[in-house]
Amino acid sequence: MSLLSSLREDLQNARAHDPASRGDVENALVYSGLHAIWAYRLAHRWWARPALRGPARVLSQVTRFATGIEIHPGATIGRRFFIDHGMGVVIGETTEIGDDVMMYHGVTLGGRSLQHGKRHPTIGDRVTVGAGAKILGPLHVGDDSAIGANSVVTHDVPAESIATGIPAVVRHRSDKQREPGVDPTCYIDPAMYI
């Protein structure tokens, strides 16, 4: 996918994920999450060429200064990734993020070791990560899962699960929990933890 096509897709995704969105021009100008993702996409292309790794890191640090969002250019991020509000997000070098992931401010996808190799999380497709969540180490968060706000996750989270608390407790996410219009006091809705 070309960089321009990716930028367009990111704009469309921002409109779909933020009810406060008022249009592409405004979003392109004021959404720090979009700015960080766009800078990451360029820095990641540079990172793939060893001669450009220094400039890629400089771009990521300039972006961190401008947006408050730090994404290492070595991370792998899929399509339609959206960071809402953004400030304080940290995404480590060996992080892998799938498609259609939604993340809120203050999230850390970090490591727990100083050893070389895979030391950051792998996040599956269609995962929502609540504000302030910390997902630490080379663990895997399965597809269609939700991580609650301020949760600390240090172990794998199976697909279609909800992880909440410190340390995070994992519960299976049933079909009933995804139905629109169901009284949220009768079931655990991941949005209650975001």
Structure description:
With 194 residues, this protein is an alpha/beta fold. The chain has a single domain, classed as Hexapeptide repeat proteins (UDP N-Acetylglucosamine Acyltransferase, domain 1). The protein is built from four helices and 15 strands. It has a six-stranded mixed beta sheet. Helix 3 packs antiparallel against helix 4. About 4% of the residues have low confidence.
SSE layout:
Layout: H1 3-17, H2 24-30, H3 32-47, H4 53-67, E1 70-71, E2 76-77, E3 82-84, E4 90-91, E5 96-97, E6 102-104, E7 108-110, E8 122-123, E9 128-129, E10 134-136, E11 140-141, E12 146-147, E13 152-153, E14 161-164, E15 169-172
Parallel strand pairs: 1-4, 2-5, 3-6, 4-7, 5-8, 6-9, 7-10, 8-11, 9-12, 10-13, 12-14
Antiparallel strand pairs: 14-15
Helix pairs in contact: 1-3, 3-4
Tag the structure with descriptive keywords:
194 residues, alpha/beta, UDP N-Acetylglucosamine Acyltransferase, domain 1, five-stranded parallel beta sheet, 4 helices, 15 strands
Number of strand elements = 15
Number of helices: 4
Number of domains: 1
Name of the CATH class:
Mainly Beta
Strand content: 15-25%
Order of helices and strands: HHHHEEEEEEEEEEEEEEE
> Fraction of residues in helices?
25-40%
CATH superfamily: Hexapeptide repeat proteins
- Rounded to the nearest angstrom, the distance between the terminal CA atoms is 31 Å
The main sheet orders its strands as: 3-6-9-12-14-15
